[in-house]
Request: fold
Amino acid sequence: MALRVLVVGGGLMGAAAAWRLSARGHRVTVLERFGPGHDRGSSYGTSRIFRLAYAEPSYTELALRALPLWRRLEEESGQPVLTLTGAVDHGSPRALDRLAEVLGAAGRSARRLSPGEVADRWPGLRADTAALYHPDAGRVHADDAVSALLKAAGQRGAEVRHGVRVTEIRRCGRTGDGVTVLTDADEALTADAVVVAVGGWAPGFLPAMVSGLPPMRVTQEQPVHFPVPDALEWPSFIHHPGAGFRLPGGVYGLGSVDGVKIGLHGVGPVVDPDHRDRTPDPAVTERLRAYAEEWLPGAAGTEPTPLTCLYTTTPDEDFVIDRQGPVTVLAGFSGHGFKFGPAIGDLAADLVEGGPGLPRFALGRTAPAR
Reply:
């Protein structure tokens, strides 16, 4: 039976849910507060890492579910979004051992490289102690991915409305069947179900409608782009601390049309998404410039361009993908959710249709899964 579903939030996760729900024949309307391609949240820009390599096997499984869906999205939308360049993890041997173990158990290839072999293949990248190359990785063009998802959803009948701010979500009747969504234009929209995917606005918006949310920390992160001519030929990479490099959380990087992007993971200041100062911090830019001088010979000596974005992080860095009554929640993607987008859209569609969720991502979980 086709359901009437409202999706609140038209960033990556809301767009992915709209695509997968409309693909199953449901009647979908997306309500997005800002305009197309806006830069206020977590889904904008030219690049996000795609990778299968995780220390936790369930994330590798989720990425494997996402990979063919990214390709299906490209076919339906006619828009390329995913480029596989391979990835290099380097640094802590213990971290590399675990990644190799998980990839091997999943039947995916990975190969050990020495720092010299890395330098021969990618002269712009200096590896620390040991390296692991895995080919099923690369980059997703973030802006193009969101627009492709909304386009594909629209082709299947979804309505996408920008410039609509949702002010309240009410469950209908004593049984809680169905919802009424109120907007700042004094509209009252009714539906069988609602999917809420509002990124950094989740901690302030969701507690009124669901229980069991983990605490979520909204931070402003600041990656930079280095203007490297061969940026699109670079692999994605993660420098794990614990060998010759001790910065907590490590550094991630990848090529993009804007240059080689690098960033620190989840170390930015806590912000209010409606009232944040988006001015880049010169100290962070300088720290990343110094990193490039030591570890990225291909970018050394170039002038980086900083940008800011939002992370919404849970204490265990696991996501929230669950349903209570007619409300499905997609939140807390902790700076590493983008690669899974279409698979998370599929999980949302399962939940809307009454299917079970994954315990790792449940509302009300009492302890970190790790």
User: Anything to note?
Assistant: The chain has eight helices and 22 strands.
